[in-house]
# Entry
Amino acid sequence: MHSTPVQPSVLPPSAEGKSQAKAENGSEEGTEFWPPFAGLKLKITDTILVVFTAGLFFATYALWLATRALVRGSDKTAARQLRPYVVLKPFVHKPEVNFITDRVQSWSFRCVWHNVGSTPTKHMITRVGLLRKYSSQPLDFEADVADKVPGSPGRLFLGPGNEAASEKFAVSADEMVLVLLDETQIYLWGCVDYNDTFHKTPRHRTEFLAKIVVVGDPQLKDCEIGYQLCGPFNGIDDECYGRPKPYDAKALS
# Structure
């Protein structure tokens, strides 16, 4: 019994090329994709590109946050260094003399505000007054000063390095004699509230309370007068006992 020899099949050139291309594509797909994960087939190059882009985004965002914090910090530093600082200069007192008798009739007192900062003030309101107490009723800070406002408000503007005096307060020579004899106590007190020109900064405050001290005869022009700071009502900004009053233009009109 004779067997029929098997003839080898020869594929046409086009079919052979397709088979080879399919094999090559399958090999490429095996190297271009990650192993399947949760039914997803992720391409390696696309995944790396997405991860790189996301990393670049977060790095850029972190850089933006750091830059914003740096800018805000520099703004606060500039505000602290350049803002106006209103301080109290030494008090000014002057004898009012009767030219006929050449005796002092009264003494006038003023306080002087000085802007030692580098920028002007804004919405500056001053309040200055005299406080009189008998020695038999000494000063009670909580009752006489705390939560109270000296004098009537006045509006001022101070440029860098400028200064301005308050209104004048007169005390008779006879009353100054009572101060000398420690029968009466007279206090100069006041405060100034103001804004700076920077954006969204808090209102500022400077306050003082000083007792008038008489040394010598107050009816003579060469009488020595001094001042003694009293109580916690002396300071600037956070050191102040009171808080700055809100600016109200209508209350000043």
Q: What stands out?
A: The mean pLDDT is 82. Residues 119 and 157 are 11 Å apart (CA to CA). The first strand starts at residue 86 and ends at 88.
